[in-house]
Amino acid sequence: MSDTSQPHSDSADAPAAERRRLRVAVIGAGPAGIYASDLLINNQDHDVQVDLFEKMPAPFGLIRYGVAPDHPRIKGIVKSLHRVLDKEGIRLIANVEIGKDITLDELQDYYDAVVISTGATKDRDFDLPGADAEGVHGAAEFVGFYDGNPLFERDWDLSAKNVAVIGVGNVGLDASRILAKSAEELHVTEIPDNVYEALKRNQAEKIHVFGRRGPAQTKFTPQELKELDHSENVHVIVDPEDIDYDEASETARANAKATDQVCQILEGYAMRDEDPSKRTLQIHLFESPVEVLTNDGKVVGLRTERTELDGTGQVRGTGTTTDWPVEAIYTAIGYRSDVLPGLPFDDQLGVIPNDGGHVLANAGGEAITGVYVTGWIKRGPIGLIGNTKSDAKQTTDMLFADVAKLSTPEHSDPDAILALLESRDVTVTTWDGWYRLDEAERAAGEAEGRERKKFVEWDEMVDAATAQ
Ligand SMILES: Cc1cc2nc3c(=O)[nH]c(=O)nc-3n(C[C@H](O)[C@H](O)[C@H](O)COP(=O)(O)OP(=O)(O)OC[C@H]3O[C@@H](n4cnc5c(N)ncnc54)[C@H](O)[C@@H]3O)c2cc1C
């Protein structure tokens, strides 16, 4: 990292004419990076220019490559982020991976400060016995496939009739809903052709979703849990034996409306009988996965141990196990962030060590001046898109408080960074390029009476974004 330059002499107290422009690189154009960019350029005290770097040819992070295709309402958040990226003062430099196309050290020669918002794309490790068997998939892999992320598989084996999904959060719901819905239901969304073709071959008859604890301890949000049942082809059930509360659960219900709503919805599902005319999605509670059962290296079942509440909202094992015959298992036990070369990484928490915004040299160590972090890479892969906004505020406030300490970068010409990337044969895609790609995807969808059809090949995206 460069420290050859002089500290800033300007501060919020200096007259505007004397203040020089602060140039900030934000790395990762997901919601956290976009909200941070907005806060940076909109502040009253400093003149800020943001370059927003993104490794994919398109912006929006997990809104494009995480949020399920049958959640267009959520994808609508893109509209407000669009308005941010339309603003002068933010320049999108996409199709550029920090750590590969340009190092963080090099970047610091061009900017007064760097904000890292690289999010998360991978699955957390799943280490049950048998977990490496054929047929065990991480939900993030499946999400990457059905959301048309060019870095993930183009085809998916959906021949399993009985499927287990491990994890009782919204990602588990997304994966099970996509497995349960018909290909035709999903064809109206933006899914690419390869995903539609794979879904047409989906043999799933019963999807079992497993959670270790009880109704009050699930991580579902009420709207997503309710919506699971909105498909004509899907029948959601819960075994009445799986509805149980201890004192801590009752307190959790009384203290949080959302928890209570989730419990009520689960209780509603527990009143139903099976409906053999539809794909069944059964949510099992108090079942802790203990082993993947295999034959010849392939999944043939999942063994779970029955648990019971211990009065504090935690559970203990009862020693009673059940073997569920399933041919595929999806683990939705959480996402994990990638290491960013040149910076420390807290393996335990899966984040860049930080004190609420400043990047630290190591967990509990000194702050690295001029380097900040926001979003999932800052606090771990939990929370909704909206949560990244307050997060970004905390981080950008820290950056502004440090202005007097920031070093002046070696290169002041805003085009110098583009020249460097060009000299390395890196094809940059821009915000104007997103408009072109967006239009091309919409045109491809309209031809089939759909709002959009996503492009899945990297080159196809870059070609559309850079078309003259
Ligand atoms: C499957 C799934 C479904 C979800 N559904 C919902 C939902 O319905 N509603 C909701 O509110 N929230 C949902 N979320 C949560 C939401 O997606 C996150 O809260 C939010 O995306 C986190 O924002 P972020 O900007 O921190 O990370 P991300 O969205 O991951 O953005 C990080 C960006 O950084 C880029 N990047 C990474 N490394 C580099 C690098 N080295 N150089 C340059 N760029 C880089 C990535 O390509 C990405 O664009 C869902 C999450 C998942 C995983």
Layout of secondary structure:
Blueprint: E1 22-27, H1 31-42, E2 48-54, H2 61-65, H3 72-75, H4 77-85, E3 90-94, H5 104-107, E4 113-116, E5 122-123, E6 136-138, H6 139-146, E7 162-166, H7 170-180, H8 183-187, H9 193-200, E8 206-210, H10 222-227, E9 234-238, H11 247-255, H12 257-269, E10 279-284, E11 287-295, E12 298-309, E13 315-324, E14 328-331, E15 335-336, E16 358-360, E17 367-373, H13 376-379, H14 387-401, H15 416-423, H16 431-446, H17 458-466
Parallel strand pairs: 1-2, 1-4, 2-3, 4-17, 6-14, 7-8, 7-14, 8-10, 9-10
Antiparallel strand pairs: 5-15, 11-12, 12-13, 16-17
Helix pairs in contact: 1-14, 6-7, 11-12, 16-17
The structure holds flavin-adenine dinucleotide.
Flavin-adenine dinucleotide binds at residues 27-33, 53-56, 61-62, 66-67, 71, 74, 97-99, 117-120, 143, 170-171, 174, 335, 340, 375-376, 383-385, 388.
Keywords: FAD, Flavoprotein, NADP, Oxidoreductase
Catalytic activity: 2 reduced [2Fe-2S]-[ferredoxin] + NADP(+) + H(+) = 2 oxidized [2Fe-2S]-[ferredoxin] + NADPH
Cofactor: FAD
Quick structural gist:
This protein is α/β, with parallel strands linked by helices and 468 residues long. The protein has helices spanning 31-42, 61-65, 72-75, 77-85, 104-107, 139-146, 170-180, 183-187, 193-200, 222-227, 247-255, 257-269, 376-379, 387-401, 416-423, 431-446, 458-466; strands at 22-27, 48-54, 90-94, 113-116, 122-123, 136-138, 162-166, 206-210, 234-238, 279-284, 287-295, 298-309, 315-324, 328-331, 335-336, 358-360, 367-373. It folds into 2 domains: 16-121 and 336-428, Rossmann fold (3-Layer(aba) Sandwich), CATH 3.40.50.720; 125-333, FAD/NAD(P)-binding domain.
